[in-house]
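Service request form, structural biology core

Requester: graduate student, group of Dr. S.
Request type: structure prediction, single chain
Budget code: on file
Notes: please return the result as structure tokens.

Sequence provided:
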Amino acid sequence: MTSWKKWTSALLAAGIIVGSGAVWQDSSVQAASVSTKVTTPTEVTLKSGGKTLTQKGLLQGGSTWVSLTAVKDVAGGSLKYDAKAKEYSLTAANNTMSISLIDGAPFVRINNYYPQVEAKLINGRLYIPFSAMRDYLGVQGNWDGKAKTLTLSKVKQNSVTVKAATVKVSIKNAEVDIQYPQVSGLANDKAEAAINKVLKDEVDAFVADFKKQTKEFGDAAANRPYAFESSYVVTYNENGVLGLITQRYQDYAGAHGMTFRTGHTFALDSGKELSLDDVIQNNKTVRETVSKKVGDQLKARGGYLEGYKGLNKDQDFYVTPTGVVVFFQLYEYTAYAEGFPEFPFTYKELLPKGTEPFSGLTGDK
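Core staff response, request fulfilled:
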């Protein structure tokens, strides 16, 4: 994809054209929120497995930052560098985080999905915020603000492998890059097949629509090609549940392209796709509370159009290690430049006191 399209797609996908997206964090690490304030970094002691790591973390602008190499060591992943592309890639917890330095400043993507993650290059070393480690790379931590110590550990995840599958599509003057997730390694073959069918059917339908649209519009100009790409990211893989975001971008050489996003939450023992009502245990009071809070925040933000009357019956959402994120599509209730409006809620807000996330929904203990 040409660079200008890539940047537009990335900014919209991340929901940061006007900074509209919400950022969530692990409550055990209050210093892990992303900040753009420029301050002198303070060293943070990193511990893992009862030992103090030789590398130091950094506390800067209210954010806790950890080097890629330290994350790799704790996560047990692999870290590679592509000298030609000037890009580092860290693979762990079924995600590959790539950080490009091709334009000087670090730019982050995960499996070709563009998250709300900032990276910093400090004294020749790449750092990412703790929240990104927890959300995407399977590393959790406990923050001791008094001692300025962050104790890291690997999250216990489900025994499932998620890998990218591709679809080859050849259309004249069209840039196509289609990747979608497929799972393997589940004990229940029928559950595995059911999950993969949902994900494959979704991308097949989008490919069919792209082919139909390009046929109706006719061939694109060589200097202004059509574009179509799909990507995904694993957002949760614990307690017998797999959470994903799949995303599809299409551009028919108009004023701008369009991006569509879907959240998927699967019970791995059965292959059932869980709804928001499933996750909140069909609690009508909680649904009404969430609906009102979302409405109040949505209408108060810039770019709100009109039409919100409550959560949709099949409300878009995705799950993370810390909670549930309710979101809406481009133009659904807000202007295009607002990106995807997101509204995070912690599990503590959504579930009865003492209730573990997804309890009673899977056979996982």
